[in-house]
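Protocol step 4 of 5: obtain the predicted structure for the target chain.
Materials: sequence only (see below). No template structures provided, no constraints applied. The aim of this step is simply to have a reference model before the mutagenesis design in step 5. Sequence pasted as it appears in the construct record:
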Amino acid sequence: MSVLAAVACGSSADPGAGGLGTVARVDVQRVAASVSEADIAAVVAADTEFGFDLFGVVAGDENVMVSPYSIATALSMLYPGAKGTTASEIADVVHLGVDDRTLHGVRNHIDASLTGPPRPSGEEDTREPFTIRPANSAWGQHGYEFLDGYLGVLAENYGAGLRLVDYVGDPEGSRTSINEWVEDATEQRIVDLIPEGAIDDRTRLALVNAIWFKANWAKQFDPAATAPGAFELSDGTEVVVPLMHGDVRTGYTDNDRFEAVRLPYAGDAAMIVVLPKAGSPVELAATLGPDDQEISWGDYEVEITLPSFEFEAEIDLTAALQQLGMSTAFISPTMDSGADFTGITEIRELFVTGAFHKTFIALDEQGTEAAAATAVLSGAVSEPGRATFTADRPFLFWIEHSPTGEMLFLGQVTNPA
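Step 4 output (structure tokens):
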């Protein structure tokens, strides 16, 4: 599973900053952040709320997935460079509820937590750890006068030292370099993130976040139990798809709005699969918020039916962010109400010229990304209830990082065929 978000900033001034010049970087190392549990919870809740907001804008009748984590991280890298209305709109869209320094410290902490080893369940825990690999990068025009303070925030909190390119002299080569970095960071799952023509000789900065995730189910499905079965589409018609079948002791809930099951991975993450009681997954998502992510799970032995599926998705992030209220950042500073990114450079000339987001997911009997491993979990001792969970119609899902609660991915499957 791979996901990536990128934000590109261009200049309203004539090109001319290219060629050889001062290397724009600062000698700042990434350091461990000291943040409180309350601060982490506040940022995670904001990311969840932003994710549901964004999902409501971009999800239609098709399979789709977004990464609230990835997009919110990319916008957090942009945010310290914004001033005035530009900054307040970004803060409103991502539901920022902490001060700036805390925000960047929490982002740093979450990234470190994502790459840490899974917590052991006891001495007999022999689980092979899954892989969550986040990466951030910043790509700036060689010779352009970036402010040291802004570059310091990126380096200290995001590990994103400025990579120098020549947008002015070689915009297509610069685009290729960024896209190749993306491919490497996502194990070739995200290709051509930034489309041809999106970078030109006025581009000055690109901010990129990527996350690659590969994991096995804590209890894998038996491939021999997979069989063709009917999946009912939103229009009432049916398609025949491979349906996986299995029994797992896990969290399950059933209320008046939805039925949900928690499918743990062999590591500190889980997929939450949610079946609406009425309406579509996107209609259900519109009623959900951060509190709904804190589901009160019952202990059940669940008989699960779930389709295997694989899809890619690409969303128009520029239009989505504007629709959510982040409009000023995309307006040229030559206009009276234009963007203000004087936290990036002293001259008021930068504005966002494009925002891009692509995702990929593959799910089968073993887990995601078809990786194979053996997982051993310590058993619980209480007597579970019994439940049946059959995902044979459109459903909502998200993948969360258990230690932080961060919503890494949010999507819907409307047709697994």
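Step 4 remarks: The mean pLDDT is 84. The chain has two domains: 2-215+311-360, 223-309+368-413.
Proceed to step 5.
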